[in-house]
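Example record

The entry below shows one chain as it appears in the dataset: sequence first, then structure tokens.
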Amino acid sequence: MKLDYENETFSKFGKSFQEKLVQSMFYDRSFFDQMSDVFDPYFLEVKYLRLFYERLANYRQKFEKHPSVEIMASIIKTEMEEESEVLQKQVKDYFARIVATSQVEDEEYVKVTALDFCKKQKLKEAIMKSVGLLKTSSFDQISEVINQAMKLGLDNDHGYDYLIDFEERFLKRSRNPMTTGWKIVDDITKGGLGRGELGVVIAPTGAGKSMALVHLGAQAIKEGKNVVYYTLELQDTVVASRFDSCITSVKLQDLHSFKDLIYDQVKELEGKLIVKEYPTKSANVNKLKQHLEKLRRSGFEPDLICVDYGDLLQPISSYKEKRIELETIYEDLRGMAQEFECPVWTASQTNRSGLNAEVVTMESISEAFNKCFVADLIFTLSRTITDKNNNTGRIFVAKNRNGPDGIVYPIFMDTSNIKIDVLPSTGETAEEINDNAAKKQQESLQEKYKKFRNGGKD
């Protein structure tokens, strides 16, 4: 008699699910290893997927390693001559599709669901086998059959094997960096912020951190990239207006007068922008991820994510100390960057010591110094009252995983049309600039005190 578990396949999940599953097994060696304990090719109802999987599994068994895209292409070309032309074409078309889009949509869901299905089939098989052993075998033997089935399909990724995985560390890995729009900064960061990386702009209140995030987002749009901008402080229309000004150079106060001109320019952009507004402290990173998944399902694939700003998010879990909550928020933001494989820019506010500093250093980070540990690129933005009047300021590259840091650059910053230019470094360090500013302030105070003592006379 044929058992029920033998009749079950992935048919109830549909063809798209099965295609994504085989694609995941091809691109993720660790997942293939995990599935191989419990997977049966006949769970696949689509024949061309079974053939593709079998060629993949045969290569794995013979050479004890995963085939590259080039090798798999050769296998499909040379080892399927005995199959019908229709089947050969189906396999080749499928392979072409998964090579063109190596990112598997809904990958985590597909992996978890498929693994759960296969493990249950193996467990059913063990249970049915145990029924036949009840009269002839001991409890320990039956228990062993069930326990072995329970162990199948467990995560067997023990980590990166220094010898077996030797070739992997010599593969060229693309960061796909997103330009900052500042050549000087791109030069020291190997092109900007990379895929899966977190960048943080740190500034005191009113210095222009939101303006800086708009600039970064606008540069990506000009490059034809899709940007998602989360605002937890300003209205979505206010943020969109800032993008109008940054992209077209029309001053904020003149936007209404040049409505038609602005529309004519922005409609020609290849990149797209979604601005999503949440009330302050009403959203956490999970909520952002849910929104991003909705955008993906609608066909909008984000290339850059801006969060204005991280300190105004809720932590996913609550903690007694605010600094720990902030640390976890930034850890979650970097996790989101890795999960969606795109750069994430956010901002953070300094404490009071950063308000009048010539150069904001890491010491001025508000509440949680540790939140910066997970960031890949951090620059601070400093603008004194004099700077604001003169459209000047400074940025300090506080952390840079992909190049030098500790560098101060003067900037031109006109907030009337969100124009920010980074100028060549003068060579002065942050400490030297702050020390010189402190000395000048001290000398000015002494001069004022001297005049006061002399009755206002020089």
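Notes for this example: The CA atoms of residues 204 and 350 lie 5 Å apart. Residues 1-5 have pLDDT under 50 and may be disordered.
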